[in-house]
Amino acid sequence: MAVIEIDDLSKSYRGVQALNGVSLRVERGEIFGIAGPNGAGKTTIVECASGLRRPDGGTVRVLGLNPHDDRRALLQRVGAQLQEAALPDGIKVGEALRMYASLYDHPADWRALMDEWDLTGRKGARFASLSGGWKQRLFIALALVGNPEVVLLDELTTGLDPDARRTTWGLIRAMRDRGVTVVLVTHFMDEAEALCDRMAIVGGGRVVAEGSPRDLIAEARTASLEEAYFALTGRN
Ligand SMILES: Nc1ncnc2c1ncn2[C@@H]1O[C@H](COP(=O)(O)OP(=O)(O)OP(=O)(O)O)[C@@H](O)[C@H]1O
Fold this sequence. Notes:
The protein is an alpha/beta fold. The protein has two domains: 2-77 and 150-233, 3-Layer(aba) Sandwich (Rossmann fold); 86-148, no CATH class. The protein has nine helices and nine strands. The strands form two sheets. Strands 5-6-7-3-8-9 form a six-stranded mixed β-sheet, sandwiched between helices. A three-stranded antiparallel β-sheet has the order 2-1-4, with helices on one face. Strand 6, helix 6 (162-177) and strand 7 (181-185) form a beta-alpha-beta unit. Helix 8 packs across helix 9 (225-233). It is globular. The protein starts with a strand and ends with a helix. Adenosine-5'-triphosphate is lined by residues 13-14, 16, 18, 36, 38-44.
């Protein structure tokens, strides 16, 4: 069953056509990647799916609901780690997790989540004092604290060191294995190849290819996903 159904989605920002007829399906329990050049519209897709932006045209359904109109209902079921997330400078790691947990009907154990993401040693650290990578980890943990059925992760591992990236991959797989559907915007083809069951490559406001990494390599007749990406987006 499709957890996210996007049909013919279009969105402009003051004359800039960001999306121009995007259609895609994300099935329950898969890790679905979205890749594409800077400015291709990936974040706009995720923001429309999380209800932050209202589409100009087309339809978006998440768990059968309209994310913009049914935002309150979806907040309990969809976790999002978005690119431009921010917290008050003075809030401590533990406080942020506890506060977010209190917003949900069926939250995860925030202390266990803090452990899982290696944040326990920084429980008392203030948000402003964290490096980019530790902020990123905190945002991921916050996206998961509501025990979501679907998580939207925008450039999840940007800014993480290689060790933390690998750890994160393991945690994402573990999430999928628990039945959570994961949507992952990424610029890293090694990450897409290692993690994604299926993915969409976006270019010029449209989906230019959709399938498993192996399907995309076969479609582009290349030796690697990175080469397939260049071939399918018309960049060499
Ligand atoms: N709030 C906004 N106001 C005006 N233009 C915007 C806004 N947000 C996005 N855009 C434009 O819409 C297009 C798509 O942007 P979007 O952020 O969705 O792309 P992206 O694929 O996520 O890019 P990146 O890989 O750089 O994060 C770009 O041309 C961008 O400049």
